[in-house]
Amino acid sequence: MDFIRYAEASAALLNADLADPDALVAHLADRSWLHASVTPGDVASLQEFQVELRPVFEASEAGEVPVVVSHLNDLLALHPVTPMISDHDPSHLHMHVANRSASVAELLIGESLMGLATLVCDLGATRLGVCHASSCDNVFVDTSPNQSRRYCSDRCSSRANVAAYRARQKAAAS
Asked: Can you name the residues that pair with 84 across neighbouring β-strands?
């Protein structure tokens, strides 16, 4: 299991607009084997999970380590993870965070929580953030060596930097 990838997928899940099963299928574009299993119940479960998960990113952004840990522990208790060894490729045994009977929502929630829990334990509880761009409320995972990430994407970073540059130029001209 690549827990950093799962943590980053957790942020992408939180940022996703999951209005209906088609939107969830689009979100899972690179996981076509899950498409046929998507149900309206998965969408409802994931929408609820998005609401439950956002406070973890907000607490991390605020540096509230005990809140991050407590909330993740609460979510792990609410959404138990059932790890299993996957043998679909006998030459590459690996762990999955849900059994074969799990729904798409249970799988995505399990991956998200295990990814975030592992990231928090390995890199620290302040590695999650909310975009600093004024017109954006997306979240991100900061895996940079110096924990310097402030924006969800290069696009938001560029926009903020251009806006700051223009504001400095306007102030200098005044």
From this structure: 96
